[in-house]
Task: inverse folding
């Protein structure tokens, strides 16, 4: 290799000396160092200013005692962490149902079969309704309203929702599923429509039926395409689980407010915020990782 | 003897009531078994639409299309069993990007013809190696060159063992080097007796490969003749003019 390179000396372009960086690599390294320094400096400056302004304000000592009491935080954080599982469990119960129901609604809206026309109308009205009503209202109306109907008397245990027939642990998640599947259905529908017509032509020309084309060609591409926006919806679902506390479900947020009511200190709410972040940030990273992997697997060159 | 494919007085137009555009104007055409027919003509002359109509991807307004003497253009007829018998290859390949080459090819044989998975796999691999693509079986379409993608698309259509192949400007999106490898595949198919209708801009190839060449202009078949006759002594002035323009652009 090195012997070979000796002959390259008389070439006008700078040749690669083994063990040394090329012109471009040197330039890239210089540039990387420079941008790292600039980024560090500007971050330090920005945070310095923000901290100075906040801590310099006249109300800061009071706010600090009320919201950022280290002793309270140390006490409350582990206790709230114990309720984390309630939020996660509610999320895990809702998420698969939302995906299934959202997909059903999306398919209903896309159907061209005249016999199924009523389904199309239903799906359109459904999405309009549940996207138009605030989630918190849906939770109120369904969570308090339906159990009041007394459709079934007594404590009939129902599915795996950990409680009786009229339990908020049943109707709360149902309300969330109804509201969120309207959003998710629209995301799926956009994904289905984004698959180019030529893909259908390719599939139909092979003799695949409409249903087979949808199942094997259109949906797999549509679903892959909408995973990032879907994850957006599921992140907000993870947070909106806290809304179920209005039905009396004790989870992180509810527990934090009751501690606050007892101690007149807002630190548990800050601790609750930290817990939600601990939950949601890894979820985002997981999706980033998944979409990147998918892209690398199926495409020739990845443009980063 | 009935022709493999007979197109009888087909009419097709796009657009609404007021801005109707006629794309196929009383088109008639016959393709015999093992025959190769090339459709030539400028872009927008109706070549692609005709092919899409034959494959029932577009409904026709009037006239009829017969496959083996059976009217396949009858309104309300289930198109799927007919499309099974007709292979189609598109200008932009239309491969499924989320499936590997092998999955692209075995999808229809397993789902439509209900072939055994292993059996379909084996048949696909055999076809792939025939077109020297065996090492690409596990690749995804986006990882292949245009010529390779188009050859995979042809293999995908061939895997259904079609009785008739429709090729819609299959080399139009390829650079000159890659055109050659795709044309070789079409030559192979011809030598094996495949009945084909192709729309093409490759005049030299059309002349070499076809039994019959049809010149379309504005949805009308102006002239239909054996290639030697059409290319050397066109009967129609417009055909001559079109060929002159093609020669001037250096494509013959």
Result:
């Amino acid at each position: 290799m090195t012997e070979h390179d000796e002959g390259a000396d008389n070439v006008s372009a700078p040749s690669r000396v083994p063990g040394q960086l090329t012109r471009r690599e040197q330039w890239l390294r210089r540039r990387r160092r420079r941008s790292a320094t600039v980024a560090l400096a500007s971050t330090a400056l920005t945070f310095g200013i923000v901290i100075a302004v906040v801590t310099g304000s006249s109300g800061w000592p009071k706010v600090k005692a009320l919201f950022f009491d280290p002793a309270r935080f140390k006490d409350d954080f582990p206790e709230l962490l114990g309720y984390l599982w309630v939020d996660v469990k509610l999320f895990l119960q809702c998420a698969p149902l939302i995906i299934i129901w959202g997909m059903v609604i999306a398919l209903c809206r896309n159907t061209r079969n005249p016999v199924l026309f009523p389904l199309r109308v239903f799906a359109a009205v459904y999405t309009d309704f549940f996207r138009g009503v605030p989630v918190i209202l849906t939770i109120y109306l369904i969570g308090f309203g339906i159990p009041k109907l007394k459709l079934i008397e007594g404590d009939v245990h129902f599915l795996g929702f950990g409680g009786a027939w009229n339990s908020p642990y049943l109707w709360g998640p149902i309300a969330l599923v109804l509201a969120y599947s309207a959003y998710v259905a629209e995301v799926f529908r956009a994904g289905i429509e984004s698959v180019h017509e030529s893909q259908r032509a390719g599939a139909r020309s092979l003799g695949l039926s409409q249903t087979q084309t949808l199942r094997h060609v259109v949906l797999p591409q549509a679903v892959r395409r909408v995973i990032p926006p879907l994850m957006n919806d599921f992140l907000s679902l993870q947070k909106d689980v806290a809304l179920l506390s209005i039905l009396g479900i004790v989870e992180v947020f509810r527990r934090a407010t009751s501690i606050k009511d007892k101690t007149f200190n807002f630190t548990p709410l800050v601790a609750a915020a930290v817990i939600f972040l601990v939950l949601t940030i890894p979820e985002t990273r997981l999706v980033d990782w998944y979409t990147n992997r998918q892209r690398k697997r199926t495409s020739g060159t990845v443009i980063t | 003897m009935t022709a493999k494919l007979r197109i009888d007085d087909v009419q097709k137009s796009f657009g609404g009531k007021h801005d109707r555009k006629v794309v196929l104007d009383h088109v008639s055409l016959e393709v015999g078994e093992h025959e190769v027919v090339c459709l030539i003509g400028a872009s927008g002359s109706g070549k692609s639409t005709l092919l899409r109509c034959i494959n029932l991807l577009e409904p026709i307004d009037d006239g009829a299309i017969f496959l083996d003497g059976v009217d396949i253009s009858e309104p309300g007829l289930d198109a799927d069993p007919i499309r099974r018998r007709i292979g189609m290859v598109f200008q932009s390949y239309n491969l499924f990007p989320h499936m590997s080459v092998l999955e692209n090819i075995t999808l229809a044989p397993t789902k439509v013809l209900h072939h055994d998975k292993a059996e379909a796999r084996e048949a696909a691999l055999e076809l792939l190696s025939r077109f020297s693509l065996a090492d690409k079986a596990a690749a995804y379409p986006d990882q292949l060159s245009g010529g390779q993608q188009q050859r995979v698309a042809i293999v995908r259509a061939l895997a259904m063992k079609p009785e008739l192949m429709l090729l819609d400007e299959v080399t139009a999106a390829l650079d000159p080097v890659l055109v050659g490898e795709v044309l070789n595949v079409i030559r192979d198919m011809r030598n094996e007796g495949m009945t084909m209708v192709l729309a093409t801009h490759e005049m030299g190839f059309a002349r070499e490969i076809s039994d019959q060449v049809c010149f379309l202009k504005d949805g009308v078949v102006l002239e239909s003749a054996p290639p030697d006759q059409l290319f050397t002594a066109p009967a129609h002035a417009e055909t001559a003019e079109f060929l002159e323009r093609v020669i001037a652009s250096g494509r013959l």
